[in-house]
Design a protein that fits this description.
Homodimer. This is Ferric uptake regulation protein. InterPro entries: FUR, WH-like_DNA-bd_sf, WH_DNA-bd_sf. This protein is α+β, with helices and mostly antiparallel strands. Helices cover 33% and strands 17% of the residues. The chain has a single domain, classed as Arc Repressor Mutant, subunit A. It is built from 4 helices and 6 strands; from the N terminus they run ααβααβββββ. A 3-stranded antiparallel beta sheet has the order 1-3-2. Strands 5-4-6 form a 3-stranded mixed beta sheet, with no helix packed on it. The longest helix has 13 residues.
Length: 138
């Protein structure tokens, strides 16, 4: 029997310890319902929800994406300091940012080499390193 988008969304929310409210479940199903990883902005997820008939405000989408991040279900990738993408793929991996289209995609992690990182300030530890490789037409 095939796993439905709602079932996948429900399991995903449970992994993060989140209560499956109607809005959370609807957005979770859109994000992970087909089993594929996603890079979305709040605006693109809001538009997708609208196209599928889900009634949810843009503010709710923002708040829900933040809750998903806090629960460890997604990572926020900030591009240009003002544009945030939300990634459902949780392993360490770099990204390509396509400047001409504004898309964010996964880059091949096996080709990335980081020789070292600076020492974290006293009392701090590195929690994550985000690598965004910006692309433009030659």
């Amino acid at each position: 029997m095939a796993v439905s988008a709602i079932e996948r969304g429900t399991e995903w929310l449970a992994r993060g310890g989140l209560r499956p409210t109607r809005q959370r479940l609807a957005l979770a199903a859109l994000l992970v319902g087909d089993g594929e990883d996603r890079h979305v902005t709040a605006e693109s997820l809001f538009a997708l929800a609208d196209r599928t008939g889900e009634r949810v405000s843009l503010a709710t989408v923002y708040n829900t994406l933040r809750a998903f991040c806090e629960a460890g279900l997604m990572n926020e990738v900030v591009v240009d300091g003002s544009k945030s993408y939300f990634d459902t793929r949780m392993d360490d991996h770099p990204h390509f940012y396509w400047e001409d289209s504004g898309r964010l995609t996964d880059a091949p992690a096996e080709e990335l080499r980081i020789a070292g990182l600076p020492e974290a300030p006293e009392g701090m530890q590195v929690s994550r390193v985000d690598v965004v490789i910006r692309l433009k037409r030659a």
